[in-house]
Amino acid sequence: MTGEEPELVPAEPGPQESPGPRPPTRDPGQQQPASQAMSETAADIEDIETDAPRVAILMGSKSDLPAMEKAEAELKARGISSETRVMSAHREPDTVADYAKNAKLRGLRVIIAGAGLSAALPGVVAAHTELPVIGVPLTSRTSVGGGLDALLSISQMPPGVPVACVGVDNARNAAVLAARILDA
Ligand code: AIR
To answer: Where are the alpha helices (DSSP H) in 5-113?
Structure first.
């Protein structure tokens, strides 16, 4: 060091300057809890604008496509991006679990899931994700009670694991509800 040390003066805002919002004060010795950091990161991810689909349209079989296409058409008409996948909770349980577990991190915000008969798909998806799940009970070739089998399978979820349930074969309403959830 040479000469005199300059005197360190705290910067004062000038007449035109405003000090601006203060950053939150945190004791430097105090660590941010990991859970808080993770939820802040998740919130940041949700805020990122991307072309990634915001709504997933799932169905238990290709035979469900004619009914479930109405959800896709409704979302498209509203300018809401979606992706459509066929996966069965009974025939491909691991695929369904993996998809549901990754859905939120991939940027999806709502999941629509349609199935007929013993329609486990919406409930299994809801078991693996925090995202809102809208179930569509579907009629199928061997339905009983005009789709009452699927309606009860989807709507009678146990407490703590909710699935919203629209009317039998009413995939369009699932899309309208998804749009309302997204405020889009
Ligand atoms: N399903 C497929 N895996 C589990 C269920 N519940 C449903 C499909 C479809 C019905 O079984 O969602 O509505 C008949 O499927 P498939 O493939 O035989 O036509």
So the answer is: 34-47, 65-77, 93-103
